[in-house]
Amino acid sequence: MVRPPSARSAVPRAGRLGLLEPTAAESLTTLGWDNVESIAVLWSLSRAPDADLALTTLIRIRESLGSDWDALDSAIRAETTLRGRLFALIGSSTAFGDHLVADPRSWTMLRREELPDRDELVADLLAVVGAEPETGPNAAPMLFRATESGPEVVAALRKRYRDQLMLLAAVDLAATVENEPVVPYEVVGRQLTALADAALTTALAVAVARVCRDEPCPVRLAVIAMGKSGACELNYVSDVDIVFVAEPADAIATRLAAEMMTVGSSAFFEVDAGLRPEGKAGALVRTLESHLAYYQRWARTWEFQALLKARPMTGDPELGEQYRAATDAMVWTASERPDFVPDVQAMRRRVEKLVPEDLRDRELKLGSGSLRDVEFAVQLLQLVHGRVDPKLHVQGTVEALAALTARGYVGREDAANLTASYEFLRLLEHRLQLQRLKRTHTLPAADDEEGMRWLARAAHIRPDGKRDAAGVLQVELRRNTSRIRRLHTKLFYRPLLESVASIESAALRLGPDAAVRQLAALGYADPEHALGHLRALTSGISRKGRIQALLLPTLLAWLGDTPDPDAGLLAYRRVSEGLNDQDWYLRVLRDEGAVGQRLMMVLGSSAYLPDLLINAPETIRMFADGPEGPLLLRPQPADVAGGILTAADRYDDPKRAVATARSLRRHELARVASADLLGLLDVPQVCTALSSVWVAVLEASLRAVIRASVAERGAPAPADFAVIGMGRLGGMELGYGSDADVLFVCDPRPGEDEHVAVKWANGIAEQVQKLLGAPSTDPPLQVDAGLRPEGRSGPLVRTLAAYAAYYRQWAQPWEVQALLRAHQVSGDQDLGLRFLHTIDPVRYPAGGVSADAVREIRRIKARVDSERLPRGADPATHTKLGRGGLADIEWTVQLLQLRHAHEVPELHNTSTLEALDVIARHELLGAEDTDLLRQSWLTATAARNALVLVRGKPSDQLPAPGRTLSAVARVAGWPSDDGGEFLDNYLRITRRARAVVERVFGV
Fold first, then answer.
1. Which CATH number does 851-1000 carry?
2. CATH class of the domain defined by 340-501
3. Is 99 left (phi over 0), alpha (psi -120 to 50) or beta?
4. Cα distance between residue 840 and residue 819, in whole Å
5. Residues 744-779: pLDDT tens digits?
6. Measured between alpha carbons, how far is 951 from 949 in angstroms, rounded to an integer?
7. In 3D, which of 599, 518, 609, 593 has the Cα closest to residue 562?
8. Which of 404, 492, 842, 906 could form a disulfide with 410 if both were Cys (CB 3.0 to 4.6 A apart)?
9. How far is the C-alpha of 129 from the C-alpha of 410, rounded, in Å?
10. Does 703 have pLDDT greater than 90?
């Protein structure tokens, strides 16, 4: 151990102390260190990495302290540990020197015996902002709320963070001056990571206060550390890579995340969320399900490599652990991806090429023989072998090297050499960054002797008798970088790696366990069940089994790109088994690539379609492309309707006629839904096709029932009979989940008793409802006559005269409004037209609707808004009754019709979209307003139809962000699987449309 001169020695000259500044001797006199009693202090000062910098900084600190200097002077003389920490710190870092000059009394922190642990660091920084634990349903152990959140807190947090960083740096550097213990690299990394965790916990507390104000935080937000922060091996100055997970991933969660990043980047360090799915172009905040959906379907090899270091950092620990646990399964199977090993190797080569030629010999992080060489080699070994060896599931580089050594994947000597060289380069990196607290990985230039001398001394490197410290550093750099490059090449390009990856992957694919993992990698949530389906499809030695085996790899890949591959595979099995006796089925799949791909998209996206396709298999043939495009687009609605009527008219038995109509309806629903899901039809085309087939089935049923009645009576019908479409049926705007709202009207024929005629007509109406409403595996056919006069308590059928009398004397404003969509759809055409002429004066009154009626409609609208929304429904996302939903748009159009139809005959139209065109053309509303209403109606209708297609049953409520919403978004035509973006767009459009509605209704 080197000892200072004895107290009897004379005070050495300044030059002998390593002080080169001309004013050094004068400075020593100013400090009172020019006497024999100061020998020990001067000796310590001489060992500082830059003694002149340390002395100059001490003079500045003395000036800042004024009369308080004596306390620091006494402590320096008496406390060896403090002296070593202080001199090493201010002799290594101009940044920390400036920090002490700005707040000289913070030197007392350097007296602390032990470094604070993570909990203490969290408490210390939270105290700066007066943070308190968050309360409420989403409160988590690491979620706090600041009581001080104004702009001034950034400066206060920056000061306190710098204090804690200063303490760590002083402890880390002290061994360069005094005989203090050297702090292991891993301890420094963990301490820096703990401080970063505390910093972002505090930044989140400030964000909660700023975003949520006095309200409980309505979201669960987990912050996931990535990169060096995730592995607990941070540098002194690093970007801190993070990823956000939230439930729900709504606007508030996004604001919280953005605000946290702003506070963190302003007060502590650069906070970078660029490793999130889709990078900086992707959503800042995602749900866990959205993250997993992305990683299952879209992530590239390097993203799984990054996930290797993912660690819950702060926020909601339970959600963070769910993220870690869920992504772990994908990380450790990533090496089964095709060309995984070559991909990682190619990535390393690309990174190396990014280093400018003139910096390659000075680059500690990215160049040849650099830190990245070690990290890439270690991570590749982990990912290849870790899928079968859980002992390798660790995050830190040094920790992983130890695990690889213990398990025999790396030799002990190689691992020891690689670890030592890695820690050496990390030490240099830390010292470079401490100098000015700047993010750098670049060594001083070869001709910068003073820079290399300072770096060597800061890194505990001393002369060796032949070379000065800078020369020793140069030798050590060459030795360590060469050793890293040699070992990197040996491990990273080891032939065993690629062969193990390919052989084990091939073997795994042959066995059940491997098949399960392969299916899981493709995105199957329940790969065991999926494997059972595959076995059933390929069992036996039949030709069909061989064709299935040939088809399935491609089909499974296509299914993997759908929202629900598991349900899609089950549906494919059911379709295949249902069509086992159809020779054309597998042949078409094999020979027509478009059929297979489209079928997988349909089956993996929709719970509505599989049963339809099983019962209407010929639709699958229509997935092929013809000379003029997809065959799904060939039939026109009018041709389909004509075919239904012709086929049903062949049967006298109403049940057989209705069964035939139902069968053809099934084919048409399967065709329309398939074309819709595949993006081949727009919303108006879908509505027209669905309405047309509904009208055709209703007409076919009515004809069959009347034919049977006439045959049974042995006499002509006693009355003419017509069905009037109401609501969306009247407007020919039905969706998949719509009922058919109707009115039944009859008119006794000459000479017939009215009572007998009405009784007969009631029987006809009841039988039609019964036949169409009979239980079936098909989507339901509900005929609803609830809009008739007096509602469900009134007679099911009325005569034309009775309707005229009722509407003339008793019609309520809501009934007048409902009549705006009345349109003849089936039965006696002449009677239907006479009914419409009868109600025209009621729904289109001369002079327009009265002011009282308008007020009543507004009152009813307000009541509907407040009372009809189902319990628990979200008014922002209910497609029918929510804000800016279908009801809002339709009521607005109908109010304008009531007020202006008497002067604009074109408004005598039952279609919402066509009426909007008229409203725009006659400038009854501004062009922008009408366009907003149209967009909202189309958006809500597309979403409502997509809900039925995805869920397989009628639904009006958009789901919360997650897998189902992403599926709905995709089926509704959104250009990506990002359900959050789709929801944001829906909310934006409907919110703007709602503003138009409120202006029209005078709200």
1. 1.20.120.330
2. mainly alpha
3. alpha
4. 9
5. 999 999 999 999 999 999 999 999 999 998 888 788
6. 6
7. 599
8. 404
9. 48
10. yes
